[in-house]
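Bench notes, afternoon.
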Amino acid sequence: MMIKQVFLSIFVLLQLVACGQKSRVAESTTFQQMNQNNSNDNNAHSAVATFGAGCFWCTEAQFQQLKGVSRVVSGYMGGSTKNPSYKEVCTGSTGHAEVTNVYYDPSVISFDELLAAFFVSHDPTQLNRQGNDIGTQYRSVVFYHDAEQKEKAEGYIKKLNEEKVYPSNIVTEVSAADTFYAAEDYHQNYYNQNGSEPYCHFVIQPKLEKFKKVFKDKLK
């Protein structure tokens, strides 16, 4: 029974990946605006963006591919429990979301482009879930670090909804960044360290390949 449930979960997730929403986003006018809004600030300092897009194993692997991204750290944000463990976050009782802190060089890649990657990396119309990962810890969320990030995130969500890129409205939360707790060491660089595991092979790899096709001109 357990084996059957595992393969059913994998099937559902793969169906989500194959649903075609990524291609619809990539073809939209708003996406093109995000993805072409390059930064030319040669004096820019290193910056950070924080995204929750379901399981952080998947989003970490995707953002690691992009030029200008120096480091991606998986962790937890948005909850009330101090120093939460993965086990605690998985219960949904701490209020935290699984997130990735994306450290980037704004002179190479802009926050707009990272937002484009964020909206392609997952389905932002699913409330408190991604596929078979269900719970508030898997919510779609942008944790902004300044007023400009907040304005851009909210603005693009409004435009994507107006353009009706998705069959239903985006439910992505836009909230102020608070304390970031890095996840346990075994979660960091997970796909690169565990690529032969079934979850990596059947779930992360197909998502990653589709992501690379959309952002082929921005890969390292």
